[in-house]
Structures are given as C-alpha cells and as structure tokens.
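@channel sequence for tomorrow's demo:
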Amino acid sequence: MRIFGKVRHRPSASWRQATDRAFTLIGDGRYDDAGALLTRAADMEPWLSESWFNLALLHKFRHDWEQARAAGLRAVALLDKETGAPDWWNVGIAATALQDWPLARRAWQAYGLRVPGSPHTAEAAEEPEGMDLGSAAVRLSPEGEAEVVWGRRLDPARIEVLSIPLPSSGRRWGEVVLHDGVPNGERTTEGAAHGAPHVYPVFDEIELWAPSPVPTWVVLLEAATEEDRNALEQLASDAGFAAEDWSSSVRLLCRTCSESRMPSAEGEGEHLDPHDHSEPGHPGPLGHRTPGELWTPERECGIAAPQGLVRGLLDGWVADNPDSREWRDLEEVC
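structure tokens (generated this afternoon):
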C-alpha cells in the first residue's frame, strides 16, 4: 500500500491474530505466553514498528527494562514520523528505569518535550533537572490495595512522593516512583477566586525507583483545635520532614471513582491533600475532612521523620501549648 509516495506495509492476518491473542493473555497476566506470541509476530513482520512497540510494552509490564529498551529502540528506528510517537515515551521510561540519561533525554526530546541542557555536553549523562512539570498524583500499588498520593514530578517518568502514604502501601514519604505515561484519572483543586479549577493527572506507579531512608510513624494526638494540628505539621516541615493528619487527609473511594476526575484539596500548594485509599466496592462519600465547628480533638497522624527526631518533634509540639496538646501510642509502621 502506497501513501503519499511511501510504501506502508500492511500486517498479515496471522500477525493480527497473534497480536490480538497476546494482548488477551496480557490482560490475564500470562506474560510468558504473550511474549511467545509477540516474538512470533515480530518474526513475521520485523519491518513493522508496531511489532517492536508491542514487545517493548510487554517488557515494560514485566519490568524487564533491558529488553524494553532494546525493543523500543527497534520500534523508533522504523517510525514514519519524527516527533510525538508513544514509542519514544516507552523508550524514555525504560531509559529512566536503567538510569540511561543520554537516551532518556533523547527520548523526551524526540517525543516533543523540552529538556534543559544540551545533549552534546557532559550534562547529558546526568539526570534531567529543571523540567518544571509541577505537581501530580500517583497511584501506588495500582493492581492491589491502591492509594493515590501527591507528589512532585521530577521528569516525565518519575514522581517524588510528598504525601505520607498509609503503611499498607509499603511506600514512604520522599520516595521516588517510576510511573506510567498515560494518566489514569484526574484530581481537581479550586483555582483563584472565580477561576477555573486546576486539573492534575493521576499516574499509575510501575515500580519503586529510589527508596527513602525516612521511616513512617503513626501517633494518636489530642489537638484541641485545627491550629494545634497545623502547628505539628508546620513543625515537621520546618525540620525538613513531614506530618499529616490522616484523620482529615485520607478518604476512601471505590476504584471507579478513583480512576475518574475527583475534586481534591481546597487551594493550592506543594502538598495537596486529601489523598485517596481505594477499594473494589463503592463505600460512599467517606471523606474525613471536618469543618471547624465539628472538630474532633483525637487525631490519627502520620509522621515521616528519623527515629532520633520524632519524639523530640512531638514533645516540642506539646511544650509549645501543653494545655491543648497531647500525644500517645507512637508506633513505627513502615
């Protein structure tokens, strides 16, 4: 078939059947069987970029980054268009997982993104910095007991977690997670007065990219007012760590709601709560944010801080206003 003077190869019926069957198997989690079919399809049609794109996608699902990079590079070598192809995004994810920074820069630029620094200098061998991609949300453990938390995008494939995840996620504040390229849901926050809401994508985690050495603690607080609670969060932030009132910031959503557009915090900032804990059924509107007149002094709070600092933070918080503040039952949970 000839299109605008270029010969485009149409895949055979056998190629399509093998590929369709492979993606059915991928949906069932049968990656090895799918891999055999996609390899056969690539043998049938080695000059078709889709053959290698599909293999790269499978290797991404399996977290086999060397193979994902190799198949992805074969796919982009066969592309008709120069920029914007999703094949380059998959190459960028694989390169980021492998810390192959020259290839990651090349991939993002080929996709059409602006990456600070020159690809022809020693800087190209370092992590891309200063891409200024802003805040986003990431769904931890998307195949299990999923939890959506807030973070800062370091580049198109990585987010630094700024919420304090619940212990069930196995994740910590300050960790960097590798995430998929296509958003799976959105969160909105109110903009300036009478302005349009801000919309933030929710990306699905692929795997942990860099762990955090900072443990997660849970503690029960007696905080007479919201200001007392806010004082602890500010005290932890000033020390370079974090505290989060889980009684207010965590809401329970069904998976369908979690993967749709949902309103989030009132206002803007680096930390945009609430974050969401998902379950398969529909639990109803269980957001825990309480207005001032309904304030409950007993709060369950997550703290991200080193062992040698956490008790001092809590004692200092109480000492600043002992008549309205207490803490008890401190426990390390992650």
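heads up for whoever presents: The CA atoms of residues 2 and 40 lie 26 Å apart.
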